[in-house]
Amino acid sequence: METDLLTITQIAERSGFAPSALRFYERAGLLHARRSPGGRRRYPRTVLRRLAFIRAARHVGLTLDEIGAQLAHLPENQTPTREDWAAISVGWRERLDAEIEALTALRDKLTSCIGCGCLSLERCQASNPGDVARSLGPGAVYLPRRLREPLAHP
């Protein structure tokens, strides 16, 4: 129904996403807008649920490609059901558990070391004599693997 269509400004206000982010997600194929006779974007209300999903998925660490693959399983023109959401988020628990474990390890070591990236050359001379960590690869090699992965960008 035409009255269920919202402008990009209304969607931005309701979702908390900037209009530029909405246009970006549309170009990435994660959102779809209709065009008014004047060429302006009009979004169905259901896009608010998709945006909530995108925000949650980004916090979990999903890439845009992963989010797109997950959204492909959701109905486009109707509000997804609880069962729809449950089916696509089932794999998130393992991912979140790994992130929690990695962050807990980081927290517990934070006062003495940040994975030999290195914050304290003096400390690392004792913990990393002769810079042996260099042979293990680039970056903070003593951080848990999950925290060494590159961050996905929006």
Description:
The chain is mainly alpha-helical and 154 residues long. It folds into two domains: 2-90, Multidrug-efflux Transporter Regulator, Chain: A, Domain 2 (Orthogonal Bundle); 96-148, no CATH class. The protein contains eight helices and three strands, in the order E-H-H-E-E-H-H-H-H-H-H. The protein has helices spanning 8-15, 19-27, 47-60, 64-71, 82-89, 92-109, 121-127, 145-148, and strands spanning 5-7, 34-35, 41-44. The protein has a three-stranded antiparallel sheet.
Keywords:
49% helix; single chain; 6% strand; Multidrug-efflux Transporter Regulator, Chain: A, Domain 2; 8 helices; 3 strands; 154 residues; mainly alpha
What share of the residues does DSSP label as strand, in percent?
5-15%
Spatially, the strands of the biggest sheet line up as: 1-3-2
Count of discrete alpha- or pi-helical segments spanning 4 or more residues: 8
Task: Report the span from N to C terminus.
Answer: 31 Å
Shape: elongated
Secondary-structure element string: EHHEEHHHHHH
Uncertain stretches: none
CATH class of the largest domain: Mainly Alpha
Number of domains: 2
Q: Which structural class do the helices and strands define?
A: mainly alpha
CATH architecture of the largest domain: Orthogonal Bundle
Can you give the mean pLDDT? Answer: 78
**Tally of extended strands?**
3
Radius of gyration: 21 Å
CATH fold node name of the largest domain: Multidrug-efflux Transporter Regulator, Chain: A, Domain 2
How is the main sheet built? 3 strands, antiparallel
Instruction: Indicate the percent of residues in helices.
Output: 40-55%
